[in-house]
Structure formats: C-alpha cells, structure tokens
Amino acid sequence: MPRTRRSQRIPVSADVTFEWMARELGGEFEEWRVWAATWLATQPLGLADRINGLRAFFKHYLHRLKLPVSPSILLRREQPLPDFFETSLPQTHGGIKWNNKVRIFLDWVLQTHFSEPDDNGRPVVSPVFWNPVSYRSQTGKIRPNESVHSPLPYRYIVELRERLAPGKNFRDWLWTHSVAHGQHGVRNDWFEVTEDKLDYEDPDCVWRTRRTSYKRGNRQIYELWSPVRAVVLITKLMIPLRTHQVRVLDSGEADTWRYASSGWELNKGAHAGGTKRKPVERGVFRQQRDLDLDEVRTSLYINTNKTADIAKQGETGYVIPWQYTELLYWLEKLRNWQAKYNPVPQPISWHHLDHRHLRGPRSDYQLSRMPDTCFLFRDAAAHGDDKYKPIIDDPIFSLWYRLLLDLEQRCAARGETGANGKALKFVADNTRRTTLYPLHSLRVSLLTCLAVDAEVPLVVLAKLVAGHSRVIMTLYYTKIGVTQMTRILDAASSKLQETAEAGLRRFLAEAEYDELTNKIVANNMEGLKASLVIRPEDRNPAGWMARSYGMCLVGGNSSSDEFNGKVGGCANGGELLRSNTKDVSNNIYAPVPGGPGNCIRCRWFVTEPHYIDALRAHFNNLSYHLVEQAKVAKKHEVKLEALKAKRYQAEQADAPFTENAELARAATLWEMEIAKTDELGHDLIATFRLIKRCFNLIEKSSNGEKFTQQIVAVGGMADLKLVFESTQSELLQISGICQDAELYPDENPGQAVFRRSQLLDSALYREGYQPVFAHLSRDEQLHLGNRFMDHLAILAQPDNQAQGLRRVVGMIETGRSLADLGLEEDWERHLEPGSDHGSARVYDLTNKSKALPLNKQSP
C-alpha cells in the first residue's frame, strides 16, 4: 500500500498546486502555497522554471535559512534578508532564470496584496513594502529594481499650462497643433471632414488642407483638429482629478439647464431632459444657489469617484463647490466645440463602452446603475462609434510624453540644472513613451502645492478631492524600518528628549549666529534675531523653555506685560501688524494664531531635526482633532443650510419666516466651529512645514557636515523617511495618539482617550465583561489602555508588535473575539500590578463582571 500511494503522488516538478509544501514545510506556509498556485495558474508558458524557482525560494531560502514566513513581514522594506541568488540557487544560467521567475512572482504578490490603485486604476505598491529579489542579467549582475517618481514642481505645472493653452481660443494653441501629427508616437488629432463642416469665422475651428497618399487617390482633403486630448491635460494641470475621472465627465448636453459664461439658461438642445421642478443634472457644470447672496454659482460635478466605483444611480460622484473660472472657460469651449463639430446622436449607454474606456472589466449590474452620458471628452478623431465615446488613455499619455520632452528641451536651452549641476530630465532616455513624472503625479503635485504652499485649509481640500479619510504620518528608516525604529525610540524616549533638549539648548547658547540660522528651523527669523543676541556669551539659556517638539525662546510667557509690550510671549508671537523702519524693536505683532501655547505657529519657537518624531506625533494628534472638529462643523452647516432654504422658500412664497432667531443661532455656532476647524487646519500645515524643513536640513547635511548626534544607533539621519497613510480605522489612529501622549507629555489626546476606552469596553463586553475602562480616571484610561493594547499586540504577533496592533484593531473593528488571540482569563494581571495607575481596580472590576454570565449583564 505505501508503494501504491507513493506512485500516485504528483512529482514536485509537476505539482502546480504546490501540495508538497504542506507535507514538507507545514501549515505555516499555506498562505504562500495559495498565492503561488493562484499566480502559476495565470502563467501560460515556462511552468517548469517557475515551479523550480518557487521551490528553491520556499524550501531552500525561507525554510532552510529560518527567515520570516509571514509575507507582510518578509516583504517589509526594513527586513534584513540574505541575497536569494547567492545563498539558495546554483550559480548557473538556470539559477539566474529561477531567480528572475521568483522576482516576477513577488512583483505579482506586491501588486495583488500590498497595493492601492492610483488615479488611473493601476496598482501602486505601498512604500513600506518592496521586492527583496533583484533581477539579474545573464552575467549574474543585479539590475535596478525600482525607480522613484517625484511630484512635478508647481512652477513647471504653470509653464506646461501656458505651453498648451497660450491664448483664448483653440486657434492660438499652435504648439499643440504642431506636435499632434504623429510625432514621437503621438496619435493624430486631425480627422477628415467635408468643407461644409468648416466655419472659417470660428476662432475654435482649426482646419487645414492636405493631399492624400497615392493609395487614397492622391486628392486634396479637408481636416479638422480635435482639442480633446489637450483639454484633458489642461484639466489635469488645473485640478487634482484622476485621469479616468476627467475622461468620463458628462458635458451636460442632456441636462435641463445649460451653462454659459453669461449665465444659466434653459437647454434647448435635442437631448435636453427633465423639467424646472425636476431638472436633470448630470453635466460637469453644476448650478448651485448661494442662499446668503441670493445668486447662482457654478460648481464642478465629478460624476465618478474612484475608477472602480460605478455605484449608485444618478449621483455617483461628488460636487466640488469651486467656481474655477479659468477651467470652466475651457470646459465650456470644448462642450460647444463638440456640439458643433462632433454632435452625439444620443446619450451613450455605459454598456457600449469596452475595457479601453472603462479601465478594466465592469459587471452588467455596475454598468446598469450609471445613467446614459453625453461624454464631454468624446474622441472626435476616433473611427466609427468610438467618436462618441470617451477618449482612451494611450493618446493622452503620448501627448504628455511630448509635452515633457519639450519642457526638458526648453530647460536645457535656458541652462537650468539640478542641484548636482546636471541637466534636468523629465523623460526617460532611449524611449518614446516613458516619462520620469507619470501623469498621475500631477494629482499629488497639485494637492501638495495647495496644502503646503498655498496653505489651503484641509477642510477645503477634503471637498476638492472628496476625501474624508484619516491621515497618519509615519516615520521610517529605509535601513532599519518602522518597527525596529519605533521599538528603539520608545525604549530610549526619555533619554532622547533630554539629550535633544540639552543639545539644542547648548547649540543655541554657543553657536555663531550664521551657523545658528543654517542649522535650526524657526517660524520667523526676525523673532530669532530678537530673542538671540549675536554674541554667544551674552545669551541667557535660563529664559528658554523646552517643549516636546522644540524650544520656546521666551520662556513660555503666555501673559502680556501691560507696562512693556515689547516683552516676548504668546501675546506678540504672531504676524507683523505694523513695521517701524527706524527701530525694529518697536514693531507691533499680533498674538500667536490659535491662542496661547500654540508654539507650532509662534515666531519665538525653534526646533531641529532631532525633534522630528515629536513633530510627527503632533501632526497625527492635530489630524485626528481636525477630522473630529470638521464633523462638528459639518453638522452645524447642514442645519444652517436647511434653515436658509426654509427662509428662501418663505420669501419666494411671500410668507413670513418665523425661525430667524434659530437661524441666527445656527449661523453663530457654524461660524465658531468653522473657525476652530480652520485654525486646526493651519496648525496641521504649519507642523508639516516644520517637518519638511527639518528634512531639508538633513538632506543638506548629507552632502556636507554631519549632525553630531544621531537619532538612533543604526542608520543615519539621511536614512529617515516619511510615509503618509490614509486609513478609515479610527481605533488605529487614536491608539497611536494615545501611545504618543505618554511618550510626549505636551501632546493632549483630548477625546481620543475616552473614545478608545469606549471601543475597548465594547470589545471586552463581547468577551463577557462589564465595562472596565469607563470606571477609571482619564490618566488611568490612557496608561492602562496603552498597556492593554500592547499586550494584545504581542499576543497577535510576538515578533512584530506594530503589525500585531494592526491585526488587533482589525479584529476589534470587525467584531471578532479576542479569545482568538489567546486572551487570558487573568489578562488584567499584565497591566503592571501594584502600580499607581488603577490596576487593582481593573482586577476587581473584571472579577466582579466575570461572576455574571454575559446574557445576564445589565445594559
């Protein structure tokens, strides 16, 4: 019998489902086994090399070398790993082939399981993860694994706009006309028409004549130029939208009302629908009434949200309440051009679009929920019915490449170079398609410029991009990683704070003034000059007060001096109100924005790179409170708008409005809350500015003088990076805030402590306990809540507490039992028994609650 069983076993070299892994490696490799079998099923050829390469990777690399088995740990950028080819493969041509097959497999794993879609729906791997297996050429040399794309600087965005659209009419776009005829793979924007279709008086009618080739009869034809591709790029260069969102915008030709620069009017077009009482509103032009000014404004309606989000009927997207005059001008121009030179026979059903237009397959259910659309960016230069459908990606990318190539050439002609003295590069060498600034980077560039440079409040940006997710900033080292760095920082936090404070205090006291201004970060250099005299021996460090994220140079003075207004403090830490040219000491300054103690925006405040982690904690704290404050402001805004609508209806009906007092009260509350929200948004941007400037100092020092004090023992300051993570998890965000509040006492977690206690008590209730944390004081909730989350994280993943915390958060938020983690009956014993933080009271509460069955607990 044993012989029979062995003879029936599938050979390892032919085992496409990798069943051998369960037998030889054990159940801990099951996740890898499933992924490997799934990937192999998508590979049509060369299965033997793929199977052999994966066997070497799983058995001789992960298993034999006792490396982390979990993919989420193995593929983290900071995870130190031996070279796969050098340690586990034969140093032969066959070994190189197997190495590269494993590289391709891990690329698939990252794109499938560790990525998010970009603005075009393409998967973008999280910067926290990477592929540790490098491509190798047939000589065995390592090929570069990846390239890093930076956002396009804003001044070049403006220059590209001017290059594309230098005048007020399409006839003025001479450069765009010249590159549109097949250069560098750019698809032709010119299409044949009969002469009667031309309007010689129309400044937007760009036409030409040419003779056809002998294959077409060698005759003269008329051609019209389509501005569609160019207007797609103009839109992308003006507003941070995904390319897919731009391509499928509705022109509004089937709407009840028609937008014109002179005002709104009833749509008299052939496809107009709806009535005044029940208007159809699907177009990008959205009519909105300003009830305060009693006037009509024009907003932008984006009819899709994400590329994969073809959801509910009608209002699938969102409104951007911005009357962007310049963009509306070009969109109206394009709509009028389409109606005249490429009229659509009827609104197009989404069922008639294929994968080129939709960026991937869609179910009939999804497509049936989208209303028929008059696509604004329909491709007039396409053939057949495609001229009524959205333009596809390839022509847009081709023009984008040509535009950046032109920019590169113009920069070279002007003699512009980078910091290293080399010519600026915007496109890849030896290619006619690849750019160093992908089209989706425009969205990042515009958002960054609006938030940081233009200081647009994040409340407004949220409406601009229809995003209300929570933002968490993470510091990580490219060499040692976020997990190890967090563990090191937590363990050494007290010493780090002391040495950072002492180091900054000593540097401020002893440094020459020129050196001082080049190595610290200050909100206002005039404040620095006023508080630090030029001669080091005349400075008095006794008047400085340390904060967790920097230093106050006026001793934390929060009270104004009624006899001497020149004394530095919160009362004059703001912007310059009145300048005295004769004596700058008589300048008059406003109080610090945000009120006393808001050092992050004060002119007396200084910091340096050693405080980056504390600044990160402050950023995350502000981010949480901004989201919560925005919710409060939104609630009052909804109530206020409802009352304004009632007043307007009453005025239209010539009836008395009886809720004026309630309206005034609602307006006052809304103004108060929106002012608080705006201040938090400015605080958040100010914090990010300081972090960014700290990184600039680090970058500057990496090429010159090094910092005398490293932030951790392993890795230099130049290895420090930032990661922004957008998450829907409230518990993950507030857990980080509560941990930071113990690490940095200046941080006030506010309601985050009580909110986390509610979530933890809810989780414990499901385990059979009465509410525990609600009975503790605020400080006890903070301290013991942190210890409890640490304990659960260790249970979830002992070798990676940060990853364990995420797993615990996921279990709590999905309602799963904590018993699955191995939560002990006497879990409260792990909360530092004998301490002064209420552990004994937790023990009493848990023992009392366990005496009652869950189904008998009182509500």
List the helices and strands and how they pair.
Layout (H helix, E strand, L loop, with lengths): L1 H7 L11 H5 L5 H11 L6 H17 L7 H4 L9 H5 L4 H21 L1 E3 L5 E3 L28 H11 L9 H6 L10 E4 L13 E5 L8 E6 L2 H11 L4 H5 L9 E4 L2 E4 L18 E6 L4 E8 L15 E3 L4 H17 L13 H4 L5 H5 L24 H22 L26 H13 L4 H8 L4 E8 L3 H11 L1 H18 L2 H7 L1 E2 L2 H7 L13 E3 L2 E3 L23 E3 L9 E2 L15 E3 L4 H41 L7 H43 L17 E8 L2 H14 L8 H15 L11 H19 L4 H13 L25 H12 L9
Antiparallel strand pairs: 1-2, 3-5, 4-5, 6-7, 8-9, 9-10, 11-18, 12-17, 13-14, 14-17, 15-16
Largest sheet: 4 strands, antiparallel
Instruction: Classify the beta-strand content into a percent band.
Output: 5-15%
Number of helices: 28
Q: SS-based structural class?
A: alpha+beta
- Rg for CA atoms: 32 Å
Poorly predicted sequence stretches spanning 5 or more consecutive residues? 1-7, 141-149, 181-186, 307-314, 476-513, 533-540, 706-718, 833-837, 848-859
- The termini sit apart by 62 Å
Quaternary: single chain
Give the beta-strand count. Answer: 18
Question: What is the mean pLDDT?
Answer: 77
Instruction: Give the overall shape, derived from the CA principal axes.
Output: globular
Query: Percent of residues in helical segments?
Result: 40-55%
Strand order of the largest sheet: 12-17-14-13
